[in-house]
Amino acid sequence: KHCGCRSCNSTFPSPFQLAALERQVFDFLGYQWAPILANFLHIIIVILGLFGTIQYRPRYIVVYAIWTAIWVTWNIFIICFYLEVGGLSKDSELLTFNISRHQSWWSENGPGCVRKEASMSGIKGLDNHSYISVIGCALEYRYIEVMHSSFQILIALVGFVYACYVVSVFTEEEDSFDFIGGFDPFPLYHVNEKPTNLLFKQTYL
């Protein structure tokens, strides 16, 4: 019935799942709770879209397509957050729900970054604390986060287009199957057979 879209199953999920998992790992390392929850929901929806593709459930794929619009909006917000657009501040605790002062994992572990700790024991009230400075970063961490979100937007747009294509293929196959009478209660080519006794009478005459 759906042989025409068997190739859809092989390439739909892989890059989307890998991109979401990669983003989740680095957000976990930075204790970014809001992105962690968003990534978790994104992974669930991607799996739902995969299930819909394999099991020929267009509604699940439509749910994924709708989610991609939300996911793009979320990543645009992340870009604005790190670029400090519209009064947003990358140093705020918005992404950690104001329960911790953690920042992006890339802020201390970016390419070329050297992390140094300086003792603060000489300052009253700050004994046993350290001041952490990061120097030598080849690229500021906020730009790395912006590139991550931009890549997620690109992947989401590709996923949206592919989801629309898969749904259209399923719909066309359903329509063609209905046209040839696949779901009709009676066959399209119905032969009105005469009763057996009537055939005998005609033969006798």
Automatic annotation (TrEMBL):
<dbReference type="Pfam" id="PF05640">
    <property type="entry name" value="NKAIN"/>
</dbReference>
<comment type="similarity">
    <text>Belongs to the NKAIN family.</text>
</comment>
<keyword id="KW-1133">Transmembrane helix</keyword>
<dbReference type="GO" id="GO:0005886">
    <property type="term" value="C:plasma membrane"/>
</dbReference>
<feature type="transmembrane region" description="Helical">
    <location>
        <begin position="33"/>
        <end position="54"/>
    </location>
</feature>
<feature type="transmembrane region" description="Helical">
    <location>
        <begin position="61"/>
        <end position="85"/>
    </location>
</feature>
<protein>
    <recommendedName>
        <fullName>Sodium/potassium-transporting ATPase subunit beta-1-interacting protein</fullName>
    </recommendedName>
</protein>
<feature type="transmembrane region" description="Helical">
    <location>
        <begin position="151"/>
        <end position="170"/>
    </location>
</feature>
<keyword id="KW-0472">Membrane</keyword>
<keyword id="KW-1003">Cell membrane</keyword>
<keyword id="KW-0812">Transmembrane</keyword>
<dbReference type="GO" id="GO:0002028">
    <property type="term" value="P:regulation of sodium ion transport"/>
</dbReference>
<dbReference type="InterPro" id="IPR008516">
    <property type="entry name" value="Na/K-Atpase_Interacting"/>
</dbReference>
